[in-house]
Structure formats: structure tokens, C-alpha cells
Amino acid sequence: MLTSLLVKSRPSLLVGRSLSVLFTNCNRINRGVSNRAYHDSDRDQKNFGRYQKNDSNRRPGNSRFNSRPRASSRDDDEVNFDKSTFSKLIHVPKEENSKEVTLDTLLEEGVLDKELHKAIARMEFPCLTPVQQKTIKPILSSEDQDVIARAKTGTGKTFAFLIPIFQHLINTKLDSQYMVKAVIVAPTRDLALQIEAEVKKIHDMNYGLKKYACVSLVGGTDFRAAMEKMNKLRPNIVIATPGRLIDVLERYSNKFFRFVDYKVLDEADRLLEIGFRDDLETISGILNEKNSKSTDNIKTLLFSATLDDKVQKLANNIMNKKECLFLDTVDKNEPEAHERIDQSVVVSEKFANSIFAAVEHIKKQITERDSNYKAIIFAPTVKFTSFLCNILQNEFKKNLPILEFHGKITQNKRTSLVKRFKREESGILVCTDVGARGMDFPNVHEVLQIGVPSELANYIHRIGRTARSGKEGSSVLFICKEEMPFVKELKDAKNITIAKQETYEPSEEIKTEVLEAMGQDTDDLSDIIISLISSYRSCIKEYRFSERRILPEIASSYGVLLNDPQLKIPVSRRFLDKLGLSRSPIGREMFEIRDYSGNRDRSENFHDEDGDADSGSSFRSGNSYGNRNRRRDYDNDQFGRGNNNRRSFSRNNDNSNYSNRNNNRY
Ligand SMILES: Nc1ncnc2c1ncn2[C@@H]1O[C@H](COP(=O)(O)OP(=O)(O)OP(=O)(O)O)[C@@H](O)[C@H]1O
To answer: Is the residue at 648 inside a domain?
Structure first.
């Protein structure tokens, strides 16, 4: 039988290939830990300084950009928090019996222009969603207030900020016609491009609104082409990912960005996390400095499904106004997860069994549903996503399309597969957390998850890819018993109870079937499992896992998937040393030491994939990587290099310097 042949030949096959992979992955594991607690980037502080120095338009002494102290440490708990900042927050809670706001009432009250009313009415939504009802008017009317808005996934937050932005453009159409007046920032390229498509929907509903042009500035696309578009269209709206936006701002802020009135952070809690927050502060600083009216002219709008009033302290450095309205459509004690999602969890003894459980589940869905089956399945790392996709393709591609989606796929391909999956009635999207937030794929029946997400809030965002726009949906989380603390953490920190729980034990038949479906991917198995170990190592604290139990459990997947539970991941002693595990019982439990002396050169001074030399010490100290390796856009930002090389970009190292934690996971 194929499986047993593979099993017998596997260790020897793996040894040669594994060495390079393992040395690479040694760095990954190291980084996995340290990047969770990293500090301000030296490089960014230099950029920040450079901007100040070169900026001829800088108005000394009047700027939040210059005057705000930058926190030296970026742990969430350690944010510099001036108590007075909270006093400016005005919480407007969810009201049960509030008067309905309709497009017509907004027109009658003079809030909306008739051309914009016409465009939105043509979309034929039955009514405005609660967040749209609650935000449109205050965003437009409150001169001296920033706005935070919280609403559950799939409830139309995008139009909740696009409608007032269009209205503002109409209101100010005679001023600075060819300048950017609204900047929308999103954490992933795909989300930025999706928001751009939503703007185009408004254009298409009323051609008269096309004069309010929009350009997206996202990594992985041709920089020069984007700037040509900026010159040609002279847009009023720019939608961007942080890294690319900073690049553009550093060179063209005077030309396009002196008249910005609004900036929007979609998925604001994500953009205000470590890894993005500095970028957002830099963006905000440049926009404020360049603003022709005043350095506090720009109104900031923060939108997300997962926000609390603490976000305001994180956003304090980028909010300009004296007051901040927190427009809430979720009750204080209500879980942020959408109530229409039927959630369940399937618990296995072994981590690897979750793969068998998911395959069995999909099989059942395909056979039991007489109509289409459209699902998204999330996985913890890029390599595991590819591995899983391969299994699912071998199992199900004759039934329905199986699409692979993560940050290592070229942007062109990503864009076309997003378009395709939006259109498909049936299919499975296999993805990392790059697809967790904001992506609007219509009519997804189910969200499946193998293992835990990259951050707790992403559980809510992942499952929120179903039950959107008034539809029903369900979600299944496949985990092993060592991952159960995650479920408790969801309850404790997010008030989410997964009511349906079942246990799972695979049959010999399904095991054999899946192991055969793995096909050639078994060659990469050690690499894949090490990527998982790295990913889990980085979230031990956040999810209250037991390191002693969770890591060996993940490592044991190697043996389970090779159908020999005794097999351990083969590594060199040097590799284990670098992990700081050569004397640890966990190390011995997870790995088998092999002699790789023939490849000594390679291990003497190895570099990881991203070109950073690894001292090998950070695994133990857990704090030495963040500074240099923070990345800008958490998906794979590449700055369209093929066409950009004529001049050296200040940030053209971004692609090689991003954090390995995110590199692995998105
Ligand atoms: N008033 C409305 N009525 C019904 N559907 C709407 C309405 N407004 C927007 N939609 C649709 O709802 C879907 C979800 O909208 P959107 O992507 O803006 O949700 P979201 O709240 O931003 O979700 P997420 O939190 O996942 O980002 C989209 O397909 C959008 O066209």
C-alpha cells in the first residue's frame, strides 16, 4: 500500500532535504516567540526623524506629530496612557428602540444629497443596517469629534464610512477638487482592493459620482503604475495598505495629500496592534503636518467588529479631535461574534486528527447537501495551508473548486482568486488569517478552522466570513484537547460560548484515505510541522496553553501523518541548541537528533529566508528580534519591485524585514 511505502521510505528521504529546511526553520521558531513582544523599530524611528528633518513645510511647535512622546515599549499593557484621553470618549450605546433612520429621512433632513441617495437606493438594500443608521449623520455633522464605530461582521460597515465620505466630497466639491480628501487604510491588500471595488459600485450606480475618483495604493502592485493613476485621475479617495501608503506619502505628500479631511482605519483594532501602530502614527503624523488647514483638521474614523473603549487609548496618538464618539451597535455584555452563526467545536486527542475530522466533515457536507457547498477553511500557517489545500484538492477537486489563499501567493493571483471565490456558488477557500478580516465572499455556508487563529479577535472575524448581510451560517472549530484553553479564553475574554462540543476519533479508513491524499507533500512534512510549532509557540501565553504539552502534541503530528507515531522530527544537535532545547525534555520529546556533520558549512552561519542572520539566542531570551524585523503590511508587501528599481525606496527593504511571525502565519 502506498501509505506504508511512504512511511518506510520517509525518514531517509527526509534527512537530506530536511537539513536546509530545518536550519531555515530554526530561525522561524526563534522569531515566533520574540516577535510577539517586540519594540519600536529603530529603522522607523530613523525614518520618522528623516521626515522631520527634510520637511520644509514643517510648522514647529504646533504638531501632534512632533510633540507626542513615542512609547519606548509597545506591549499593549504598557501603552502610555494619559488619563485625560479617556474623558474625551463619548460612548453612545446600542439602543433597543431607536427611531429608524432611512435613506429617505437622511435625504429629507438634508444629510444626503439626492445624487448619492439615488446611487445607494439603486442598490436595493431593504434598509440601512444599524451601523449605517447610527454613523452616517454624526460622521458628517460633528466638526470636532472623531468617531469609533463597532458593529458585527457582515453588517455593512464599509458603506457606513463610504456614504459619509461621498457626501463630504459632494459638500466640498468646489474646494481642492483634484486633491485627496479621504484616506482609507486597511490591513490587507485584498481588503483595500475590496473597498475600492465598493467605491466603484457607488460610481456604477450613478455615473455623476464618478468625478469623485478613487485610487488604491497597495503592496505587491506596480508602484509606478499606481502613481501614474494618481496623476491621471487626481483622486479624492485613496485606499491603501500602510507600507505602500508611507512610501507614497514620503515622496508625494505635498502633491496630493495636503487637503485630507478624513482618515479611516478599517479593522482599526488590527491596525492599532503592535506591528502596525507605528506605521499608522507615521501616516497620521505626515498627513497632519502637511494639512493645509491645520494640523488637527483631519477627522479620524475607526471601524471594526472587535473594539472596545480601550481602543481609544491605543489610537490617542492618531486622533486629532477634542472629543471622540464611540457609536456602538453591540451591547456591552453581548458577545461580538454574530449571533446568527451556529458555532461548534470538535475536539480530538491528537492535533493531526483535526485534519481527518475536517476531511470527514466536508465529505459529509458535500454528500448531505443537495445544493451547493461554499466554505472557507482557516489554517494556522502558510505551509500548513498549502499542505491542507493539497489534501483537499486530492480529495474533493472533482466535486468542487478548492482555492489556496495566503500571503505567499502573488498579488495578481490573489486578486483573481478573490474575484473567483466571490462569484462561485460552491467551493472551498483554504486560507491563512490573511482572509480572516473584512473579506466579503457572498453566501459562504460554513467556516471551518483547523487549529487556533493568530489572535483571539480573529476567531470572531474568521467565523464572520459566513452569516453576512442577513444570511445564516455555521462554523466548526477543529482542535485537539491541548488547545481547549483557547475555548476557555474565548469565554473569559470575549464572552463567547461555543455551545456545541463533540469529540472525534478517526477511523482507520479515513486515516488511510487522507494519508494517501497527502501524496508528495510528505516530503515537506517536517517543514510544515515546524511551521506549526513556531506558530503555536508564539501564542502560548495569549491562549494560556501549556508549553510542556502543546508543543510535543503539535510535533507528534509528524509521526501521526507518517503513520508511525514513534517517529520524531529529525534535526541536528546544532538546531536544537539554537532553540535552546538540547537539554530540555520537551526537545527530546519532539525531535530526533541526527548527525548532519557533512553539511556543517551551512549551519555555521546560516541565514533565514528573509536574509536576516540569526544569532540563535532569541528563542531563550525572547526579545531580540522585533526591532529589526517588524513588517509593514501584514500580508506580503513587495512594492512592485520589477518596475521600481530606478530609485531606491526608503522602505524597499520591507519585503525582507517583516516579522517572521506574520510571515509564517499570513
Ligand atoms: N444596508 C444594507 N443592507 C443589506 N446588505 C448590505 C447593506 N449595506 C451593505 N450591505 C452588504 O453587506 C455585505 C457586508 O458588508 P461589509 O463588507 O461592509 O460588512 P462589514 O460590516 O464591513 O463586515 P466585516 O466586519 O467582516 O468587515 C456586503 O456584501 C454589502 O454589500
So the answer is: no
